[in-house]
Amino acid sequence: MTLPLVATSDKALVLFPGWSAPEPETDYIWCDAPVEIGGVVEAGLTLHVGCYISIPDQHVVFELRGNIPGIKRKKALMRIEWRSLRGGHTNRRRKGAPESGKRVSDTHFHPFEANWVEIEQRMREGNLPQAVEIEEELPTFESLREYVGNAFRINNITLVTRPPWVYDLFA
Amino acid sequence: MASSVRPHPSLSSAVDAAVRDLVRVRQWGDTVFVNLPLIFPGGSEATVRVTPAPGGFRVDDGGFAYRELESIGAERSFHNAAGKIGQREGIEVTRRAFVLRAEPEELARAICDVAMASYTVTDQVYRKAAEREEGEIEDYLRERLSVIFGAAHVEEAHHIKGSSTLDWDVSAIVHVNSHAAVFQAVGNHANSIYRASSAFRDLAELPNPPRLIAVVKDKQTLGPKLALLSQSGRVIQSDQTDDAYMRAAA
Questions:
Q1: Is B43 close to A28, i.e. CB distance below 8 A?
Q2: B39/A contact by beta carbon, under 8 A
Q3: Does A75 touch chain B (CB under 8 A)?
Q4: Which residues of chain A lie closer than 8 angstroms to B26, CB-CB?
Q5: CB half-sphere exposure, A102, CA atoms < 13 A
Q6: Is this structure's pTM higher than 0.90?
Q7: pLDDT in tens, B182-226
């Protein structure tokens, strides 16, 4: 299956494997859920979701990863970052591209289309170097999840449960 | 006549705003995140995390470099590459993060050093990943050629002598009708291109030269080096159709 077809097809999570234990040195928690298209589990196609257990309602990353034809490594195909602690994103400068060199805020979307070179049938170099602003208000994890489901075309995104954030009342 | 230079009305404010945005600080409880003006290959900024520690502070990169590498399937390269940088810069490296402990007067330097280490490891691994693509194209290429031309037509041996008598290692030699075709996987880095180019020039001087085909992952990213490569052989992309492979070998 070609990458544009993967990106534009309706998809479903096969299952939600649950959240990982926090990584001791970073506090990061994550899950990698296998993704199917039309009832077929595509090799290497996974939805990665990650955040920090001790920092609730911040820095949530949803990333669709797949195998790139011609090379063995798995790579990100599209990504949404919500309230990123990495302080937004700066698009790579590209001649003639309207988004070239622009900065987007800490809640943004790296769509497949903006990172795909149709005429050459390949992903842009780097790790999804182009991103666009998400204009919609996404006040909660649940609203983010719904937005991701629509943007990534994953029809059962609600399988991804709310992260087991630890809320500190004094923070 | 005196001339006056009028200041641009919004110059200072535009620059002020841009500069103010270069470094940002955000606090959650006992944790402070600092974004610094070093742009990772993915477009986000080098970010460090500062937390209180006995006698001062702990500064780490929150595993952001590791996560960046994970996005391109290169997270296994983190430990080795980070270890070398950590050793050189005196920074502790855990499985997924750079860590420094600093007294208050050392904090600024520690923030800079951890951010720079985080950026450097990512940049290095990205470059190496691009070089590794040559090997990846090669594996893919051999399988592809066996399917297109039939395994019996793809030679087991991968070397061929040029007119200089030098023995060149090539990715694959395929026998098509009455002639040989040499396929060479070529990565984007300069050494790979120069090596393929030299081999092709030497092989082209043979009395009965084989067809010479460079297989790249992406013609566009070769830039001007594509012109150099195409002077000495045909160039195709690894993901082109079977027909393109056959035409190149004809």
A1: no
A2: yes
A3: yes
A4: 85
A5: 13
A6: no
A7: 998 887 777 788 888 999 999 999 988 999 999 987 787 777 788
Give domain B150-249's CATH architecture.
3-Layer(aba) Sandwich (3.40)
Quick one: which of A162, A138, A163, A139 has its CA closest to A150? A138
Query: Chain B residue with minimal CA distance to A65?
Result: B71
Residues of B in contact with A28 (CB under 8 A): 62-63, 67, 96
CA distance to partner chain A, nearest, from residue B20 (Å): 13
Residue A143 Cα, gap to closest chain B Cα (Å): 22
Question: With an 8 Å Cβ cutoff, is B150 touching chain A?
Answer: no
- pLDDT tens by residue, B66-88: 999 999 888 889 999 999 999 99
Q: For B73, which of A74, A89, A168 is closest by C-beta distance?
A: A74
How far is it, in rounded angstroms, from Cα A10 to Cα B4?
Answer: 63
**ipTM of this predicted complex?**
0.87
Position B95, amino acid: R
Round the CA-based radius of gyration of chain A to a whole number and report it.
Answer: 16
* Residue B60 sits at the chain A interface (C-beta within 8 Å): yes
The domains of chain B are located at 20-130, 150-249
The CA distance from B182 to the nearest CA of chain A, in Å, is 19
CA distance A171 to A143: 23
Option in A71, A103, A127 nearest B68 (CB): A127
Domain ranges, ordered by start, for chain A: 3-159
A70 close contact with B: CB closer than 8 A: yes
SS3 per-residue string spanning chain B? CCCCCCCCCCHHHHHHHHHHCCCEEEEECCEEEEEEEEECCCCCEEEEEEEEECCEEEEECCCHHHHHHHCCCCHHHHHHHHHHHHHHHCCEECCCCEEEEECHHHHHHHHHHHHHHHHHHHHHHHHHHHHHHHHHHHHHHHHHHHHHHCHHHECCCCEEECCCCCEEECCEEEEECCEEEEEEEECCCHHHHHHHHHHHHHHHCCCCCCEEEEEECCHHHHCCHHHHHHCCCEEEECCCCHHHHHHHHC
